[in-house]
Amino acid sequence: MPAGSEVLKKYPFLRGAEELVEGLSLTNLSDFPRVLELAEKKIRYMLGLSGERDYPMDKRDAVAAFSASLAMASATGSRRLIRSYASALSRELEKELSTDAPDIYEEVAASLGVKAQLDGKEFKMSLLDYLSLKGIDNEPDLLLPQLKVEHGVVYFQVNVFRKLVSTVFRRTLVEKMESQMRELSAAAIDPKVKDAIASISAEFSKRRGEEVDISSLSPIESLFPPCVKFWISQMNKGINIPHQARFLVATFLLSIDMSVDDVLKYFSHTPDYDEHIARYQIEDLAGQRGSGKKYSVPRCETLRTSGVCTCRQGLCQHMTHPLLYYKISIQKRLNGDPNAGRDCAGSFS
Amino acid sequence: MQEEIVRAHFHEYYAGIDAEKLFIPDLPKREFGFLRPDKREMIRHLSFYDVSSLKSYLMSIPISHVYSSTAIYRDPSNKDMNAKGWEGSDMVFEFDADHVKQLKDKPNVRSGVLDGSDWSLIKDHTWRLVNDFLLDDFGFSQNDISINFSGNRGFHVRVSSKPYLQLSQEGRRRLASYINGADLDVDLIYSKLKQRGRAKIIALSQPGWMSKVAKVIGDGQNSVEEAIDSIALDIDENVLLDLHRLIRHVNTLHASTGMIVMPVRDLESFVPYEDALVPCDEEVRVKFGDLRPYSGISVGGLTLSEGLSGKDMRVNRSVAVFLVLKGLAQGNN
Questions:
Q1: Do A144 and B177 count as a contact with CB atoms less than 8 A apart?
Q2: Closest C-alpha among A268, A277, A338, A343 to residue A311
Q3: In this structure, are residues A247 and A302 in contact, taking their beta carbons and an 8 Å threshold?
Q4: Where are the domains of chain A?
Q5: Cβ contact (<8 Å) for B183 and A144?
Q6: CA end-to-end span of chain A, whole Å?
C-alpha cells in the first residue's frame, strides 16, 4: 500500500511507489511532458547543472519523475554521471530525513532492505542484518567498532542511522542505474527523450571536465593508488609479496596500458623472480594467452577482504576502485592540487 | 625404529578410537583432505558417508594430517569447486602462537614448543574471544561455540550457527576487523574521552569497543593506544574469511606432534602437553637432542632440561612421539 502523498513526494522510492507509475518507460516518456520536464530538471539540479528546482504537485508526478530521472541518467551511459547523481540523491535523502521525525526512518530503511527498529532514542538492528549490508565499509562512522554492540544487536544514534540509510540508498541507486544501463537499448528511447539525455550528458562533461583517458597518458607512478605504490616499494626492497598483491600490481599496470615488458620490470626485484614464469603469468593476465580473458583490477572491497588494501585515509576512504583513485589523482594534479596522490605517503618509501 | 614408534602410535590410536568421536555435524556434506607430513601433496575432495567409513580410511592410510571443510556442500567430493554446491560455512577463529604478536618471535615458539606462559597467553586470548566478543558482543549461543585444541600451537574456536552459515566474506571481514580492532577510529574514542559529565559517562559505558577501552584506561594508567593493543586479538583473518577452508578434524592426530586435535570443555584447566597426549602405558627408549631452549617445559610429566640433553632414556611413547616429531629426540633401540 503506497504511503501518503507528502511522504511519497519526499521519498518517491518507498515500497509500493512503483505501482503508481507502471508502464512508464523511456519509450513513452514524451507522452508525459510534465514528467519528462520534472525528471530533466531534477537531474540538472542535482548534478549542479542548473539552479532551478521544480517541485511536483502530486505524488504520482513525484514518483514518475524520480523513476524517469534514474532511467535517463542510466541512458547517458556514463558511470561517472550515474555515481554523481546517486551521491547527490543520497545527500538529499540524508537532508530530508533530518527534517523528519525518526518514526519515518524505519519505513524508508525497510524500502531499501535495511531491517531496523526505533528503540527509544536510537535504532537497533540484528548483527546478522548489519553484517549483510552492502557498501558501507567506506564510511568510518558505520563500521562496527564505532557502534554500540551488545548481545548480537547493533545500535545506531539517529544521525548515524541517517548516514547508514543514505549510504545504502546510494549503493542501491548505483546498482539499479548500472543494471539499467547494461540492459538499455538505444533504439527503444524516444527521440525527444534522447535529445534531453544527450544535452544533460554534454553539459555534465563540460562542467566536470572530460573523463581522463588514462590509457593515453604516460604512467605517473607518484599518482598510483597507495596500495599499488606500497606493494611496488616492497618488491623494490626485494621482498616477496602475497599473490593477491602481485595480482593487483600486475592488473593495475596492465590496465593503464603498460606493456608486458614494462610490467615485468616491476617484478624483477623479487627474490623468486623467474622471467619465463613471470612473463607467462602477466601475458595470461593481459589476455594474451589461453582463453584470452583479460583480468580486471580488483575492487577496493576485494582488496580489503584479502588484506591487500594498505590505506584507509584521505581519498582512499571514499574509493571503490584503485583505477578511480588514479583517475581522480590525475585530475587533481591537472587542477594544480599539490597533495594529489599523497594519501598514506608515509607507508612506503 | 623411530618411524616404527610413530607409525605404531598412529595406528593404535585410530584402531582404538570410538568412531563416534570423529563425528561433526553434517559430516557427509564436508570435504576431507589429507596431507602427508612432508606436506608435498594434499589429497582432497574426499567425503565420507559416516564416521565408520572415515575411521576405516584413517586406518588404511599412511600418517597424515587430517582436515575437513568448514563448509558444507551438496557434492563435497566434486573436484570442481564451483560444482560442489556450497551451502554455507561455519566460522572458525584460529589462534596460533606463531600469529600472536607477543609470541611469534620467541625462539621456542618458532620451533613449535610452547612454555607455560605461552599457553597461558593463548588460552587467555581464546577465552576473551569467546567471552568478550562472541558471547557478549556478537550474542552467539554457547551451544553454537566449540573450542578445539589444534594439536600443536593453538586453538580453533568454531561457531556453527545456522543463520550465519551463509554469511559473506564481507560480513566475516567486518567481524574480524572488530575483533582485531583494525577499523577502530581512535580519534572518535579520544573525542568521547574529552566529553564531560553525564555525556562522558554515557559515551564510556557504550557496550562494544568503547566500554572495553574505558575499562582498561580506568584510572588513567594506560593510553588509548595501549588499551586498544591489550584488547584487540590477533585472529588469523584468512581462516575466518576463507569459505572453503579445510581445518583439522576433531579427534584426529596432528602429524607434526602426535597429539590429539581435541575438543576442550574447560579451557582454564586444559594442559595441552598432558591432556592432548594419547593415553599410553608403553615406554620406549629415546636419545635426547639439545634441550637447552626448552628447559622447564613439561611434556607428559617429563620436564625438559639442559641436563637431559644427549642422554638416553625410556619415556612414555606419546611423549617420545612428540619429542621425535619435534626433532628434540631420536628413537633408540
A1: yes
A2: A343
A3: no
A4: 5-208, 216-347
A5: yes
A6: 60
Residues of A in contact with B177 (CB under 8 A): 143-145
* pLDDT per position as a tens digit, B62-117: 899 999 999 999 999 999 888 999 999 999 999 888 888 888 888 888 888 999 99
Across the interface, whether the CB atoms of B208 and A150 are under 8 A apart is answered yes
Neighbours of A22 (CB within 10 A): 6
Interface contact A121, partner B, CB < 8 A:
no
Domains in chain B (CATH in brackets) are 2-175+235-274 (3.90.920.10), 185-231 (no CATH), 280-331 (3.40.5)
Query: Which helix (DSSP H) or strand (DSSP E) does residue B92 occupy?
Result: strand B91-96
Which chain A residue shows the shortest CA-CA distance from B203? Answer: A148
Cβ atoms < 10 Å from Cβ of A333? 17
List pLDDT tens digits, range B229-286. 889 998 888 889 889 999 999 999 999 999 999 999 999 999 999 999 999 999 999 9
CATH class of A5-208: mainly alpha
The ipTM estimated for the assembled molecules is 0.90
Option in B167, B181, B188 nearest A131 (CB): B167
Residues of B in contact with A143 (CB under 8 A): 174, 177, 183, 185
Rounded Cα distance, A207 and A213, in Å: 17
Contact present, B72 and B26 (Cβ < 8 Å): yes
